[in-house]
Specification:
45% of the residues lie in helices and 20% in strands. It has 260 residues and is α+β, with helices and mostly antiparallel strands.
Length: 260
Amino acid sequence: MTKSTAPEAVSSVVKVFNILEALGQQKEIGVTELSQRLVTSKATTYRFLQTMKSLGYVDQEGEADKYSLTLKMFELGSKSLEYVDVVALADKQMQYISEQTNETVHLGALDDHSIMYIHKIDSSYSLRMHSRIGRRNPIYTTGIGKILLSDHSEESIRHLFSDIKFEKSTPKTLENVEQFLAEIETVKQQHYAEDNEEQEPGLYCIAVPVYNRFGSIIYGLSISFPTMRFDQKRKSYYVRLLQNAGKKISEQLGCEDYPI
């Protein structure tokens, strides 16, 4: 029987966070002082520090015995806060879209090789899209996925899809990166993306971008309709509704030039 390493692993995690907390309390600290605080041998403390240094979370001044935190922890925390902030900022706009359409409204972000829903307002109808916050879907089957990659270069998109296998969710699902790139060209021209039964049969979605202060697309905002309820004559209204909301959210994130 293989011996469990769980207690040892948990102990290691605790040591890492104790080191981070200690380094966060002062500008820099030496191995000797840190090991005394943690009641851990210098050799063990040194190994942890060197590993954290290799990962970019700890900095060492030359070959000196002094260590300090890098900005990577700040960056990590900022990313987490960004998600929390944008949900609060987007909620009012998403609620308004929901009131005007009675349909499902999503806010999504790129997460590795997928899109992840980070906020959702449910449709008031019993027949609606089944989804949940935290759920992931393929980039190539969703309007949000297409809009999130619409400001990426062809080289960047090809690199991203080099590790992705296109799988058919429906007969309309895109089959390869060439089809995806052709779709992205249309998205760039019209400033919105569509999922026309590519993720689920009988489901149509429209998505628009949300920009940060640097002018990069970091979120996608969408409305999802059962195709039987989608009114093609009102499509321009739905797009404008989404774009106005996307513009207001983007402005609150520091974007000064929303492209509509």
